[in-house]
Amino acid sequence: MKNAETKKMREEIKKHLTEGIIPFWKGMRDDEFGGYYGFLDYDLNLDKKAEKGCILNSRITWFFSNAYTLLKDESLLEEAKHGYDFLKDHCLDKEYGGIYWSLNYDGTPKDTTKHTYNQAFCIYALSSYYEASGDAEALELAKKLFTLIETTCMDEVGYLEAFTRDFKPESNEKLSENGVLADKTMNTLLHVFEAYTELYRVSGDEKVRRRLLWIMNVFAEKVYNPKLHRQEVFFDKHYNTILNLHSYGHDIETAWLIDRGCKVLDDPELTQKMYVITKDLTAQIYKVAFDGHSLANECDRGVVNVHRVWWVQAETVIGFLNGYEKEPEKKEYLEAAEKEWAFIRDHVIDKRPGSEWFWEVDPEGNPYPDRPIVEPWKCPYHNGRMCMEVLQRIPG
């Protein structure tokens, strides 16, 4: 990966991370009530009294922790501690355990739903903060959430989704879309896997390793559809698919996250088994969803949504870089990553002072002005991670 175009991409992405994304999210810090502000609209009006999503604050804590580990800028560790303190003191339920869905602006509980997806992202943040800071308390909290998920948030088939504050099962509106109500989702399974990968990487806990191996098998046997070269997305409680949906962004993200898990687990037989799947997912996304410069969103019952969503574009860069690393003869993957970055650079990054990335743009790169710049799902997790992955995968 040493051609001039790739080197230029790396330099541009490093500059964007250090001069764009990091300063923007430092500016979202709430020093009065803790954590980070929860809403910035399209016109860059900051609502300091908007709800604070716990996913948002977990992801910001994860981001600053990893940025510190990579860049060794002490100010980033201080931001990570600010996020960690908010998670520990406000997002975690002291009475029933687990992490809330959201808080009011002042750190009091707002939506007390306990969602498995949300527990996973807190594990992800705590694991990375432990690596960055060496604070053993963060690792202990991550392990407690792991135990909570394994003892409370699953049945004999797999991970359940949504619960009341005291962990009674409830319907899964929060992670169901496209007109269905899912008992289980690929999305939750993927991010439990992602969180456990980081927890195992920093702790070496054998219980976590066993669960990672189990999740891999669920992906291979229940989620991956070899006939359609894709993952299924929404399921009933027995992992029967309930919607003909191809989520392009999740497939390219899953491909590299599963490969990351294989590297962390270092099991050659498992790696060989899963690489067949991740190669197939990458090849299919390149074939059906990438138009030469950017990635469409999804295909729902045969109808393609061509919106270019911020997180899908970010995952596309990593996914195709990862595909090229595995199959260096496929230079089209490297070119796709470079073209995707150029599209992001020219169209998805909002050039207005005080902004970050647009939520979504059309295939020509025109932004949709009804979507906010920051809200409970819109954070530096996908785009910040893209920057850090590129810096680690491409030699400086």
From TrEMBL:
It comes from the Bacteria. It is an enzyme of class 5 (isomerase). GO terms for molecular function: cellobiose epimerase activity. Pfam families: GlcNAc_2-epim. Belongs to the cellobiose 2-epimerase family. Belongs to the N-acylglucosamine 2-epimerase family. Catalyzes the reversible epimerization of cellobiose to 4-O-beta-D-glucopyranosyl-D-mannose (Glc-Man). This is Cellobiose 2-epimerase. It comes from Waltera acetigignens.
